[in-house]
Amino acid sequence: MKEIFFFSIIAGVVCTLLSTSWAVGPGLQIKKDGEIPYAAGGVGINERKKMIEMEDEYNLKLIFATQSGNYLAKVDVTIEDQYGRKLLNVMVDGPLMLVRLPQGEYMIKAYADKGQKTQRVVVDKSLNSVTLQW
Prior knowledge:
The protein is α+β, with helices and mostly antiparallel strands. The chain is built from two helices and ten strands; from the N terminus they run αβββαβββββββ. The protein has a single domain (23-133), classed as Immunoglobulin-like (Sandwich). 20% of the residues lie in helices and 48% in strands. The strands form two sheets. The protein has a six-stranded mixed sheet with strand order 1-2-3-7-4-10, with helices on one face. A four-stranded antiparallel sheet has the order 6-5-8-9, with no helix packed on it. It is globular and about 35 Å long.
């Protein structure tokens, strides 16, 4: 009876861990919006280093900054396909975002306190880095 109780507790813990997003650092998580996996963060040197280590798993890197080069956080990001369908719509808490998209042409729309930026990108298998500056 004790073995069944112990096994039930272990199974419950495992199920709880599997149902949450994957934490890869403080404040940095790998998530999905629909079918699109992404990682967002980059606040602090440790998060930025971790995101650099993860870059080979993604094919689009977005960097949010001011014209003077300072990083910018709290950016609303929408990614649309070539037909205008929204594939991803998220609030990014840090200055960096990694996204894994199917190959194709996309429109990036980013909204920050300083206004909106729009950028058309073509994504293939390799990492495409785009800096949006306000």
